[in-house]
Specification:
It is a single chain. This protein is about 30% helix and about 25% strand. It is of the alpha/beta class. It has 2 domains: about 150 residues, Lyase, Ornithine Decarboxylase, Chain A, domain 1 (Beta Barrel), CATH 2.40.37; about 180 residues, TIM Barrel (Alpha-Beta Barrel). Strand 16 and strand 17 form a beta hairpin. Helix 6 crosses helix 7. The longest helix has 19 residues. It is elongated, with a radius of gyration of 23 Å.
């Protein structure tokens, strides 16, 4: 998708981008300083509604908070999704401080500490265990607290998902218990006082290919059907993962959600209902829910020409925007969609490179892109910033102030 398509999503007024219906200059004045992240709640609501309209009614929607743990965003989504997935004690507390009930929260991720597991068990959260060590820690915490914990086995599948930005299943992984070991694990802990409610398989993230996602979901259902035969009770929780991608570059095409949904309808109406009638299928999404609702706004501090190349030096940078610089898992760095947010009605008439204020050549936000002529105090806007922005970046590097975040 190209920048003008993203501008159309947010809207413009008198040559300025609008976020949450507010012109960018007014929003910047309201925030008080740049740089800042702004998230548009209407775009967020539209995405949830689109998912609700496409996915089978039986499928529950879980928000993977790691994508954006801003409390206001989490609180907003807590009233609109069915579940929240967390990956640390800090995220767990944000979820528990929202309106969602603890039994609708799941806790995934390798390396859960004994203290984190105890906190989750005490709260009644589903612990998605990634190893037998974690299972033992759950048992110990449950014995000390006098509770019966609910757990799901996170499975490292025996298949890989092609086309994912990050592969998180298949082959050796720090994530989950290898599929071939799960039957023995279920037998070993069948009388350990655990309520094993089901399985979680998340094989990859940031995938824009609907056919690949659908095939991964079919493979997941087939694998869980086989593993369910070794479970003492019926499967009640079937977390199919997510991995739905969003377009970051001009060459990217949006995910065909309807095609993914058609595959899910076939799975729910077919093998899931036939083989696991008591299971609640869950789709766990982070980036796909929040990624397109956010922008990062940074102000031009300097404009300089070095041996024929124009640089716009801004007051933000890699310390807030690691992914934009290409250092968050990308094999090849490509420009995110970028505009001059207070000149949306001005044609692009130069090529410029946008760099941050850090003392490293890695601080590259956009390389040789077409922009309207921009000068000092103009506002540079980077789209697709609702997920893996601030909290996925090296915020302490060089000691610059943290940016503001607003939900509008």
């Amino acid at each position: 998708m190209k920048p003008h398509e993203h501008m159309a999503t947010f809207g413009t007024l008198d040559g300025e981008l609008r976020v949450g219906g507010m012109p960018l200059s007014r929003l910047a004045a309201r925030v008080g300083s740049t740089p800042f992240f702004a998230y548009d709640r209407d775009i967020l609501d539209d995405r949830v509604a689109r998912l609700r309209g496409a996915l089978p009614p039986r499928v529950e929607l879980s928000y993977a908070m790691k994508a954006n743990p801003m409390p206001a965003v989490v609180q907003h989504l807590a009233t609109r999704v069915d579940r929240i997935d967390v990956a640390s004690a800090g995220e767990m507390q944000v979820a528990l401080d929202s309106t969602i009930h603890a039994d609708r929260v799941s806790f995934a991720g390798p390396g859960k500490s004994p203290a984190e597991i105890r906190q989750a068990v005490a709260a009644g959260i589903i612990v998605e265990v990634e190893s037998t060590t974690e299972i033992e820690r759950v048992i110990k915490a449950a014995e000390e607290l006098g509770l019966t914990p609910r757990i799901a086995i996170r499975v490292n599948p025996d298949f890989a998902v092609k086309g994912s930005g990050m592969r998180m299943g298949g082959g050796p992984q720090q994530f989950g218990i290898d599929a071939e070991l799960v039957p023995a694990v279920l037998r070993r802990y069948s009388t350990a006082g655990l309520d094993i409610i089901g399985f979680h398989i998340f094989a990859g993230s940031q995938n824009l290919n609907a056919a690949i996602i659908a095939e991964a979901q079919r493979s997941t259902v087939d694998l869980v059907s086989q593993l369910a035969e070794h479970l003492a009770a019926p499967v009640r929780y079937l977390n199919l993962g997510g991995g739905f991608g969003i377009p970051y570059t001009a060459k990217d095409q949006p995910l065909d959600l309807d095609a993914v949904a058609a595959g899910l309808h076939a799975l729910v109406d077919g093998p899931i209902t036939e083989r696991m009638p008591e299971a609640t299928p869950v789709i766990e999404l982070g980036r796909y829910l929040v990624g397109e609702c956010g922008v990062y706004v940074t102000r031009v501090l300097d404009r300089k020409v070095s041996r024929g190349k124009t640089y716009l030096v801004v007051d933000g940078g890699m310390h807030h925007q690691l992914a934009t610089t290409g250092n968050f898992g990308q094999a090849i760095r490509r420009n995110y969609p970028v505009i001059v947010g207070n000149r949306t009605d001005t044609p692009a008439d130069e090529n410029a490179t946008v760099v941050g204020c850090l003392c490293t050549p890695l601080d590259l936000l956009a390389d040789d892109i077409e922009l309207p002529l921009a000068g000092i105090d103009d506002l540079i806007v980077i789209f697709q910033q609702g997920a893996y922005g601030l909290t996925a970046s090296p915020t302490a590097f060089l000691g610059h102030p943290a940016p503001a975040e607003v939900l509008v």
